[in-house]
Write a structure and sequence with these properties.
The structure is a homodimer. Helices cover about 75% and strands about 0% of the residues of chain A. By secondary structure, chain A is an all-alpha fold. In chain A, helix 4 crosses helix 6 (about 110-115). Chain A is elongated and about 60 Å long. The model of chain A has no long low-confidence stretch (mean pLDDT about 90). The interface between A and B is large, with 62 and 62 residues. The first copy, chain A, binds a DNA duplex through helix 1, helix 2 and helix 3.
Chain lengths: ~240, ~240
DNA sequence: GTCGAGAATTGACGAGTCGTCAAATATCGA
DNA sequence: TCGATATTTGACGACTCGTCAATTCTCGAC
């Protein structure tokens, strides 16, 4: 039965790929991009370097795989969050909460992703992996765009003439990206003692209030929503801090 | 007269440093971080590699110098913008405009800065240069915090209990950072045909409206403000696009 | 004009890493 | 047991970084 052998082979291959990924993730967190070393990885997993290159075409390709690994988990959390049954603004909030919980679960994901943002790095990964990477991002945007569309259809949100559907999303996305970058920089004295995570949430709400996305903060207890979403969808306490 | 010789020496040294920086910037834009090569720089400027290392202690140190180079120009533009004589919200807007014009003038600055954000890279630069880098960032935050303080003092802005002064700044900063990062990624189909720069400005205004920072968008022509600030302070057309 | 001490410049070199590939080894059905 | 096929190996070539002993240059003193 040839297929039994083939299936075992595949299983072993996947297990080894997992081993490489886990080892690389640990090393990357510890030593950074420049410290990550293919020879050391090979040594750590007790295979030769050639075998590592059977799985990943280059060091950068391996990093991209690390990224895709957590990004898949992130996309799944997005999907789950989007199915939350509430107002359109609560559903958008659910995505934000999904992301915040994701960050709590995978604190070093964005440090890895920021390596890939260097154009000279992304140029070195295989085409399939790059395509998959773009597909994941696109799927997330689809989920989000759908929520805005629903809000407009339901009359919760009225976008002024000339403002595209993606505008409020873009505001949240840019803030989330900026937040994760700033968090990974050297701490600024101006932010000492301030819960920047709570500030991020405050700013989300201020912006959506500015768009007039109903129900407004003044008419709804979003603190309670955050707790409800967190526990219902993810079974965890809210990551949003105290909203204002 | 020994000082004449010394002064000429210094001048020559500075000129060569300029030459190295300009060459490196061009190469970095063209070939990316991984493509940038100390031997090639030395060859291009027609000096030896050892001489390049007289100026910069490592490849990463050179990149940090590139960054500091434009960052100094940016800080100067911030300072100029902050002195604009208008409402507190216009003054904040002036900073945003300064930054947008800066991006227009130095389109590849953030690509360079993002290299430095990799922790394993910043670890390799000299202490003085790192300190200078942090000092520039801090100075910019000082300018901004001052504007928010003035707004609160003037009664233009009332921050709810528990919201720190830096909150609205953080929202703008995070969006600016996120925007520059997203812009340098592979283009998303959801944004095709949309002027993301105009969207960024829309979002700034929505958020500040959400904070109730007076005068609100509904009571003031910020389009006109943008044009006025751009021409008055920088003698250039507004980079904000059409605001909504 | 010449000299020589000290400053500036050079580029060969050691160390380290990436990615390859011919050779060695392991697997598995006949 | 055997041989064809799949898998693994690690020595190797190519490349880059950063160093430093050797070389060249500079400039004031005589």
């Amino acid at each position: 039965m040839a297929s039994a052998t083939a299936s075992r082979r595949l299983r072993e291959r996947l297990a080894r790929e997992r081993l490489i990924l886990d080892t690389a993730r640990r090393m990357l967190a510890e030593l950074g991009y420049l410290g990550l070393n293919m020879d050391r990885i090979a040594e750590a997993i007790e295979y030769s370097k050639g075998t590592v290159y059977q799985h990943f075409s280059s060091k950068e390709d391996l990093i991209a795989a690390l990224c895709a690994d957590t990004a898949a988990a992130r996309a799944e959390m997005f999907r789950k969050a989007a199915s939350y049954d509430g107002t359109t603004r609560e559903r958008l909030m659910a995505i934000g909460i999904a992301d915040a919980i994701f960050i709590r679960r995978h604190p070093d994901h964005f440090a890895v992703e920021s390596i890939l943002d260097l154009s000279s790095v992304i140029d070195k990964i295989t085409d399939e992996r790059r395509d998959r990477w773009v597909a994941i991002k696109t799927a997330k945007m689809d989920v989000l765009t759908r929520i805005v569309q629903d809000a407009v259809d339901a009359g919760d949100l009225v976008l002024p003439e000339g403002v595209p559907l993606c505008a409020p999303l873009y505001g949240m996305w840019a803030q989330a990206v900026g937040h994760s970058r700033i968090s990974s920089m050297a701490p600024m004295p101006h932010f000492a003692g301030v819960d920047m995570n709570a500030v991020l949430w405050t700013n989300y709400n201020r912006m959506l209030d500015g768009y007039g996305w109903k129900p407004l903060t003044s008419d709804w207890d979003y603190q309670a929503s955050a707790e409800r979403i967190s526990t219902t969808v993810f079974g965890e306490p809210s990551p949003a801090g105290s909203l204002t």
